[in-house]
Amino acid sequence: MNTILPLAMLLATTIRPIWAQDQFSGEWSPLHHEDYNERIPGPDLGDFAGLPINDSARLFAESWNASRLTLQEHQCRVHVSPYIYHGPLHLRIWEEKDPYTQELIAIKNYISTYEQTRTIWMDGRPHPPDYAAHTFMGFSTGKWEGNILTVDTTHIKQGWARRNGLPESDQATMTEHFLRHGNIMTHVTILSDPVYLTQPLIRTDDFLLDEKELGGWLWPCEYVEEILNRPRGDVPNYLPGQNPFLYEYADNHHLPHAAVMGGASTMYPEYRNVLGTAKIESAPALEAVRASSAENSELHIMPVQGNVYMLVGAGGNITVQVGSMGVLLVDSGFAQLSGKVIAAIRTLSDKPIHYIINTHVHPDHVGGNENLVKTSGGSAREVELVNTPGETAAHSVQIIAHQNVFDRMSVPPAGQKAYPESAWPTDTYLGVEKEVYFNGEAIQMFHPPAAHTDGDTIAFFRRSDVISAGDIFVTDGYPIIDLKNGGSLQGEINGLNQILDLAIPAHHEEGGTYIIPGHGRLCDEFDVLEYRDMVTIVRDRIQAMIKRGLTLDQIKAARPTLDYDPRYDKPGGFWTASMFVEAAYKSLTQTK
Predict the structure, then answer these.
(1) How far is 167 from 83, CA to CA, in rounded Å?
(2) What is the per-residue pLDDT for 282?
(3) Most-buried pick from 85, 376, 523, 527 (CB within 10 A)?
(4) 440: number of Cβ within 10 Å
């Protein structure tokens, strides 16, 4: 008796926390009494009150034109996980357990809005690396803190902080707390965004447990052509200072303009004391947040889909296709990292490299050509012809690029050293397209004239549904318009639009075709879309200022990239916002 009692007490103290963890499984409906106008009718244009935004977020929202949602790629965009619970939805929650141990693996959420299934991993797994793809729901891990389920989420796509144009960047992270009180569940969201917020943004939502199954669980979306004959690449936006609706909400409700323009001070009750004299809050300048960059001495391989992989860390990203016929690469990285590149490829295949496609001439993309071809018997330029070109190709490496890449590698500008002949392309094309068939897959190569350079190639793996974009698309900075090597701003935009034409999303503007950028993380169509919009909007602003007769210095002083600088500027780095603006200006004003 005396032995059993202490044992029972020990078991009770050990098991009680597990019993105390509230179960959230069931079907829930949102209670909209809180923030009703924002959550159901929708927030007014120009109402940014109560949000700790900075000047960049404010300019982004001021420039936002609701007509942008008529663009096909924007029509099915999903509200990201920090915002989607705030709107009209039905929510189903259930647990996923190991069938043998019955240990909890994950807590699943099905959100009827845009048919989103969200997974909260409960098994202790780590978050993905920085170069992994982002999704609208992000990657979430959870833990119990007493009766509270606490969730941390990373890898979230760009979305809304408020759906009247106020942005949330793809660098944002979120912490959530789920609490249950009988049939009421409270959901607390803490959003941190180093790009657009000066303080964490905290929201709460309440849900009511439903006793019977709800209807309206499906929200399918297929985009349509809403506006006929829209100019190709058009991105509706308002130039700074020209949004006619910016102060409509404030004027209709007789509010000071400063009161609705947001900023951390508008979050607190004390702000009422200064309403009469308030000025639009200029948030402290944020240090630019460099997008996740894997340019270091450690190489990583990430499966993309099909038989295509992304190799990160060798300079520019390298695309690797493997199969029974051998290895095909898009780009070769820096020369000094070739040993590590070869070792990484050997973890995927022991077969020789047969093709290297060069996307452009820069050394972080072609520098490894010479070293890599040596591992497979040399380039086709060096191997002695055996019977037929096909027989020769079986024992050599073909380096494919646009003719302009060959010209610049073989005859460099004055004062620069030529690449070794073994690194030169062995198979070039002059037009806008070339194709090869390798490892059971068609690979199409497209040349957008005068984009990042004048020799760019976009490689499209048709069966795997993967696009290798080169430096036409990057995620870690503004696009580099290499004027000396024939690049142009409009060609850059045309190249991004060509990638959008090739890419097809799988469901609600996510997944489907994956895009490997020249630098940065794995992406899909939506990521390219937001980048294309950014470059186009900046072009429109610079063009408007050129028409007004502003000089380059005046345009730089006007900061036409302000709303994107915290995300893409690299002060003191290789390519800054100022350099991008200058290249864009020169490109737009150069003699045709």
Answers:
(1) 11
(2) 80
(3) 523
(4) 11
Measured distance CA(95)–CA(181) in Å, rounded: 19
* 8 A C-beta contact, residue 204 and residue 189: yes
State the number of CA atoms in the 13 A half-sphere of 242 facing the CB: 9
Question: Does pLDDT of 235 surpass 60?
Answer: yes
Q: Hey, do 21-44+71-195+202-209 and 300-589 end up sharing a CATH topology, with the first three levels equal?
A: no
Q: What one-character DSSP code corresponds to residue 6?
A: H
Q: For the chain, give the mean pLDDT.
A: 91
Closest among 93, 87, 106, 96 to 219, alpha carbons compared: 87
Could you tell me where the DSSP H helices lie in 432-521? 489-502
Higher per-residue confidence, 382 vs 17: 382
CA 445 to chain CA mean position, Å? 23
Banded model confidence at residue 18, pLDDT cuts 50, 70, 90: very low
As a whole number of Å, the CA-based R_g of the chain is 27
- Contact (CB, 8 A) for 127 and 155: yes
Residue 353 is given by DSSP the state E
Q: What are phi and psi of 198, to 5 degrees?
A: -95, -15
Phi/psi for 117 (5° steps) reads -105, 120
What is d(CA 14, CA 174) in angstroms, rounded to the nearest whole number? 31
Instruction: Compute the distance between CA of residue 309 and CA of residue 367 in angstroms, rounded to an integer.
Output: 20
Q: Which residues contact 529 (CB under 8 A, 6 or more apart)?
A: 73, 74, 500, 509
Query: In this prediction, what percent of the chain has a pLDDT beyond 70?
Result: 91
The DSSP element (H or E) to which 148 belongs, if any, is strand 148-154
Q: d(Cα 87, Cα 344) in Å, to the nearest integer?
A: 45
Q: How far apart are CA 51 and CA 541, in angstroms?
A: 26
Distance CA 290, CA 477 (A): 7
Q: Render pLDDT for 382-411 as a digit per residue (tens, 0 to 9).
A: 655 455 544 455 568 999 999 999 999 998
The pLDDT assigned to 413 comes to 76
Q: How far is Cα 157 from Cα 174, in angstroms, rounded to an integer? A: 12
pLDDT band for position 12 (50/70/90)? very low
User: Which residue type occupies 260?
Assistant: V
CA dist., res. 503 & res. 495, Å (int): 13
For residue 277, give both structure tokens: 């004299």
b/e code 134-144 from CB counts within 10 Å (16+ = b):
bbbbbbbbbee
Instruction: Return the residue matching tokens 């078991």.
Output: 11
Fold adopted by 300-589: Metallo-beta-lactamase; Chain A (3.60.15)
Tokens of 355: 């093709």
Domain ranges of the chain: 21-44+71-195+202-209, 300-589
Q: Whole-angstrom Cα distance, residue 592 to residue 291?
A: 34
For 202-220, the pLDDT digits (tens) are 999 999 999 777 677 888 8
Q: Which residue has the tokens 């000047």?
A: 55
Instruction: Assign domain 21-44+71-195+202-209 one CATH number from 3.40.1010.10, 2.60.120.590, 2.40.128.20, 3.90.1210.10.
Output: 2.40.128.20
Q: Report the alpha-carbon distance of residue 561 to residue 569 in Å, rounded.
A: 9
In this structure, which amino acid lies at residue 499?
Answer: I
Task: With H, G, I as helix, E, B as strand and everything else as coil, classify residue 153.
Answer: strand
DSSP 135: B
| pTM summary value | 0.92
**549 token code pair:** 């007769």
